[in-house]
Amino acid sequence: MTAEPFRNQPIETFTGEEARREMREALRRVREEFGRHWSLYIGGAWVDTGERIVSLNPSAPSEVVGTVAKAGKAEAEAALEAAWKAYRTWKDWPQEDRSRLLLKAAAIMKRRRRELEATLVYEIGKNWVEASAEVAEAIDFLEYYARQALKYKYPSVEVVPYPGEDNESFYLPLGAGVVIAPWNFPIAIFTGMIAGPVAVGNTVVAKPAEDTPVIAAKVFEIFHEAGFPPGAVNLVPGEGQEVGAYLVEHPRTRFINFTGSLEVGLWINQAASRLAPGQRWIKRVFLELGGKDAIIVDETADFDLAAEGILVSAYGFQGQKCSAASRLILTEGAYEPVLERVLERARRLTVGPAEENPDLGPVASQAQEAKVLSYIEIGKGEGRLVLGGERLEGEGYFIAPTVFTEVPPTARIAQEEIFGPVLSVIRVKDFGEALEVANGTVYGLTGGVYSRKREHLERARREFHVGNLYFNRKITGALVGVQPFGGFNLSGTNTKAGGPDYLLHFLEMKTVAERF
Question: What pLDDT is stored for residue 135 in this prediction?
């Protein structure tokens, strides 16, 4: 097949009137379908059940965005059976044909882009730009993995010649696996976690987050229209403790691709390690977990540039990103000028219903609101609250951008993932101490340094122990193919999504030697 070189999808900033008009129209259309029902997708067919998952608008929880059929163990079993049945033939498709299906799905996603963006606005509370960036990333995953998969088609492994023998090594897909996706990037991460393994010949049973089943169903509409064979991709929304746990522990699950909390990820890792009756392999487990990400600013930095990057990193999508800046580490010479600039800018941030395109929309759910507010209460006893720290008026789950200063590095709000618009400011004496504090958590996902001092940047390059490190820019928004994404320590198994090695996780190499 011939495909254009991979290029990242542009992110719409909605500065032009035409784009704003398109988005307003998409919001109107999506609002008109509020209350619509979607079914499960098993073996290429839409399957309904008697139970429902109700998706609410976090900007106005009295509004039902839609309902999706709720799967139980029986539907999970049927989906896994369908995936293995499809695997028998899908694994033997020419790689070009599999890649072509991914590219077709990407083209359909491009055509439906505004609708998908508007769905994210309503279902999970992203403002317009955050929604655009996420849909762009989903398209990128499809297009990037479609091209990367061509590297592994047979024969693809170069081995050393040996006299009198024909030796070859080649890659094979693993089988049928499970994808369990998070609510914070419910189209980008969801699509990427499915597209990677499927691109190279595996089949997938996907369980989306309970808070975001509607956007997941729309992704499967796209897969269906693109023409994926029955059973190659299957959708089973349901409760994690029922459907997710059943699939994780199932003896016929070959691999588990999970993005979510540290607590659940550690349980999955442990459960998958146990050999179930009838199981014939060691399950592969890929985990993308939490972060407690830090930005260091030293006395040589451009303080205005730093303040802008800190704000975007800390408060973009209400801080509900595993890559979000939740710790700000300032050296003595940077402390006052940077804090002053951050507070000045943070006070100007707008918070409101996501459809109005504010700086911050709502947090994701009532449960998330309660979690964030509980950490704010903890923070009041650990640091000094200098901004925000309150739930705002309105039906939605609105929380003010919050800043704590005088936070000890070992405080709970400086160690535990809050997943909300809360920034802890930590003062240190010098850059060496800044690195010690930055590395002083169980996580190691993203981090950043603002400095004009080359010695500091190069030291951070060696010693700041995170999977994705950014200098003099924001620490969120890794681009597919440009910044492969994944973390160290308890931030996960560092699969580096959107990178050149990602697909290898879902392949195994076979070697054949023939003596002549």
Answer: 98
